[in-house]
Design a protein that fits this description.
Layout: E1 9-14, E2 24-29, H1 37-48, E3 67-70, E4 73-76, H2 82-85, E5 89-93, E6 100-102, E7 105-106, H3 109-117, H4 140-148, H5 156-160, H6 162-166, H7 173-183, H8 212-216, H9 223-236
Parallel strand pairs: 1-5
Antiparallel strand pairs: 1-2, 3-4, 3-5, 6-7
Helix pairs in contact: 3-7, 7-9
The structure holds iron/sulfur cluster and FE2/S2 (inorganic) cluster (FES).
Iron/sulfur cluster binds at residues 64, 151-157, 173-174, 177, 216-217, 219, 221, 223.
């Protein structure tokens, strides 16, 4: 069997702002199988067009700042290898449903505002609880929290979510996932009562469980499954008060 020729050069099609402008094409070398989409963007900035706007920080898949749409699917530019895409033309665009600031940079304020609107922040009991139930390995609540934890607030799920795109008031998968974890945290003063917002028009009942959120999450948070659990809690728990 002949081996496929490694891709050593790509055409990078980059969306430039203002939105709607035709993408700009750059010929970019791919020096190794480990070369990332971020390396290609940096090549453009260093050698071809220093005005190209994009964000990155950690280059290790931890900060979430380099999330973009690559060949039509959300992903982290610093973690996506060019080789894994398997195409000689690679398109890169900004996250969807968020205002474009410049080229690949979006204003993340609507995304982070959804956490504020959901009050998705830990509120300790006053005074702090002294006895807290220990959750041993295998406890269903512990397993759920471990599965749903780890969000790096990259915004990829918000971008991929069909409801976020069509309903500006919708809280979106990441904020609702955070609400779920807080509602199960015994140290949190609001507990399941904080789910009241998830029962509104802005919340989980709007989710149609298409699963794009889970498919694009770079740290494999099963966001869709969390939304289903949220719906289950809303159906069975008293969340008034
Ligand atoms: S849940 Fe995943 S895709 Fe959504 S913001 Fe968090 S890390 Fe990104
Ligand atoms: S630069 Fe931090 S996740 Fe990509």
């Amino acid at each position: 069997m002949p081996q496929p020729t490694p891709i050593d050069r790509i055409t990078l099609e980059v969306a430039r702002s203002p939105k709607g402008d035709a993408p700009v094409r750059f010929e970019v070398p791919v020096p190794s199988a480990a070369s990332r989409v971020l390396d290609a963007l940096l090549y453009v900035r260093h050698h071809l067009d220093p005005s190209l706007g994009f964000r990155y920080a950690c280059r290790a898949g931890m900060c979430g700042s380099c999330a973009v749409v690559i060949n039509g699917k959300e992903g982290l530019a610093c973690q996506t290898t060019v080789a894994s895409l398997g195409t000689r033309t690679v398109s890169v665009g900004p996250l969807r449903s968020l205002p474009v600031q410049k080229d690949l940079m979006v204003d993340m304020k609507p995304f982070f505002d959804s956490f504020k609107r959901a009050d998705a922040a830990f509120r300790p009991t006053e005074p702090a609880r002294r006895s807290i139930r220990t959750l041993p390995p295998g406890d269903p609540d512990r397993m759920l929290i471990e599965r749903q934890n780890g969000c790096i607030t990259c915004g990829a799920c918000y971008s991929a979510c069909e409801w976020s795109a069509s309903r500006p008031g919708y809280l979106g998968p990441a904020a609702l996932n955070r609400l779920l974890m807080l509602s199960l945290d015994e140290r949190d003063a609001k507990g399941v009562r904080r789910l009241a917002v998830a029962a509104t028009d802005a919340g989980a009942l709007r989710c149609h469980a298409l699963g794009s959120c889970t498919q694009v999450c770079p740290v494999e948070v099963p966001v869709r499954e969390g939304m289903q659990r949220l719906k289950g809690l809303l159906a069975t728990r008293d969340i008034e008060g």
